[in-house]
TrEMBL record:
PANTHER family assigned to the protein according to its UniProt record, in alphabetical order: DIMETHYLANILINE MONOOXYGENASE
Protein name: Potassium transporter
Classification via InterPro entries: FAD/NAD-bd_sf (IPR036188), Flavin_mOase (IPR000960), Flavin_mOase-like (IPR020946), FMO-like (IPR050346)
Species assigned in the record: Advenella faeciporci
GO molecular function terms attached to this record: flavin adenine dinucleotide binding; N,N-dimethylaniline monooxygenase activity; NADP binding
UniProt keyword annotation of Flavoprotein present: yes
Family membership noted in the UniProt record: Belongs to the FMO family.
Lineage, broadest ranks: Bacteria, Pseudomonadati, Pseudomonadota, Betaproteobacteria, Burkholderiales
Length: 274
């Protein structure tokens, strides 16, 4: 029988997790593994965690996405180092604004202001860090906020979330989603509904990262190896609808659905093998 052939697109943590899942089988002595090719468009592996001194474009002309920098303690953008002595505005109300604002503060920004449309972080920020409501409009370097207040800034950083963009895929295979904990059309968060031979890893809002990528990769591997059978299309749809309905009803889905979806993963059979 012809060997199964697998293309892994991207050698960031998700792609590497998938490679490691198969490597674990190889090391355990499993023969007849699929033929696997991993494609990475940057010079090196690692994705966001590729430790490079480069910013802007790499030598292939591809944007450098990595955020690694010296003395890194969390993967925030190294560009934060560039705002020392400046008044910086961050637009966004979630972990990117929080992380990047903290990094800018730590690396000597004159002031850090975070604008968000709903609520506040509720933190006791240091003296030169403050919060503002939504951004209304900008005149030159002066920003007008929705409460009528104004302030001049040297730099504005948009922390308004991930955009899912797969320009290299044909329309019928392209996942259409926003940043959320349960993207529609991915059975168990990874198998593309209209063609489950297409697997997306790491598409959930990234509250869990590496552990989640591993759980997904090991599960995907066992389906590919035939150890786990996927249900038929209608049953997959039913399962996804149940999760989507639940997600829609929860007042704070990020707190509750994560734990349950992990529990679902842990009960699957991928635990039994290497
Ligand atoms: C600013 C920022 C800070 C973050 N900080 C943290 C943190 O502190 N801790 C944490 O756990 N997570 C953090 N994350 C989450 C981060 O997304 C994950 O840790 C992880 O990098 C995701 O892995 P991935 O492989 O899915 O994607 P990526 O790391 O983005 O890797 C994708 C890879 O695919 C390659 N690629 C893309 N298109 C193609 C193509 N057509 N052909 C070939 N290769 C392609 C890219 O070049 C890249 O190497 C952060 C994310 C951001 C944006």
């Amino acid at each position: 029988m012809a060997k199964t052939k697998i293309a892994i697109l991207g050698a960031g943590p998700s792609g590497l997790a998938q490679l490691r899942a198969f490597e674990a089988l190889r090391k355990a002595g499993v023969a007849d593994l699929p033929e696997i090719v991993c494609y990475e468009k940057q010079n090196d592996i690692g994705g966001m965690w590729n430790y490079t001194w480069r910013t802007g474009l790499d030598k292939n002309g591809e944007p450098v996405h990595g955020s690694m920098y010296r003395y890194l303690w969390s993967n925030g953008p190294k560009e934060c180092l560039e705002f020392a002595g400046q008044d910086v505005l961050l637009v966004g109300g979630s972990y990117s604004a929080e992380d990047i604002g903290s990094q800018c503060y730590k690396y000597g920004a004159k002031s850090v202001t975070i604008s968000q449309r709903s609520g506040t972080f509720g933190y006791a920020w240091p003296e030169n860090v403050s919060e503002k409501p939504g951004l209304d409009h900008i005149d030159g370097n002066v920003v007008h906020f929705t409460d009528g207040s104004t302030q001049a800034f040297d730099a504005i950083i948009m922390c308004t979330g991930y955009q899912f963009h797969f320009p290299f895929l044909p329309d019928e295979l392209r996942l259409d989603t926003h940043n959320c904990l349960y993207p529609d059309n991915l059975y168990k968060g990874i198998f593309f509904q209209s063609n489950p031979k297409l697997i997306y890893l790491g598409m959930q809002d990234q509250w869990f990262t590496f552990n989640m990528f591993d759980a997904q990769a090991w599960y995907a591997r066992d389906v590919i190896m035939g150890k786990i059978q996927l249900p038929d299309e209608a049953s997959r749809r039913k399962d996804m609808d149940a999760w989507l309905q639940r997600h829609g009803q929860l007042p704070r889905p990020w707190l509750e659905i994560k734990d349950d979806s992990l529990e679902g993963f842990m009960s699957l059979k991928f635990k039994e093998v290497a």
